[in-house]
Design goal:
This protein has about 130 residues and is mainly alpha-helical. The protein has one domain: Cytochrome Bc1 Complex, Chain D, domain 2 (Orthogonal Bundle), CATH 1.10.760.10. About 55% of the residues lie in helices and about 0% in strands. It contains six helices and no strands. The chain has helices spanning about 5-25, 30-45, 45-50, 80-90, 105-115, 120-125. Helix 2 (about 30-45) packs across helix 5 (about 105-115) and helix 4 packs across helix 5 (about 105-115). The longest helix is centred in the first third of the chain and has 23 residues, at about 5-25.
Length: about 130
């Protein structure tokens, strides 16, 4: 058995451990505490473009996404897609927020709050 063949199980084990460790840090999408924290962050950072209700029905930003309808999300609506859009920005109108929201948990709280704006049917489809 070659050196690389012996390393393969170790590499797979490390990848599985890393994925598990990352998943353990993501707050539960149904956590009232996470959604409440996300709501606070949303009211502070996001209402200027997406509005207080998330519908983006404002004259100022005509292309802001209606966050209540995951079917119209430009860059996908999985939890990971939403996280990436918040962290890295999306399109020309959505700036990256990873420098303002340096705590990764805060971005996940925002993801959970945004998903709370959806119907139960929409959440279960993801």
């Amino acid at each position: 058995m070659g050196f690389t063949t012996r390393l393969r199980p170790l590499t797979v084990s490390l990848l599985l451990f890393s994925a598990t460790a990352i998943q353990a840090e993501i707050p539960s999408p149904d956590s009232d505490e996470s959604i409440a924290k996300g709501s606070e962050l949303y009211m502070h950072f996001c209402t200027e473009c997406h509005g207080k209700d998330g519908r983006a029905l404002m004259d100022v930003i005509s292309d802001a996404t209606d966050l209540t309808d995951p079917d119209v999300y430009y860059n996908g609506s999985t939890r990971e897609d939403i996280y990436r859009s918040i962290s890295d920005g999306a399109g020309v109108g959505m700036p990256p927020w990873k420098t303002q929201l340096s705590d990764e948990q805060d971005i996940w709280h925002l993801v959970n709050f945004i998903r709370s704006l959806w119907t139960e049917e929409q959440r279960s489809a993801q």
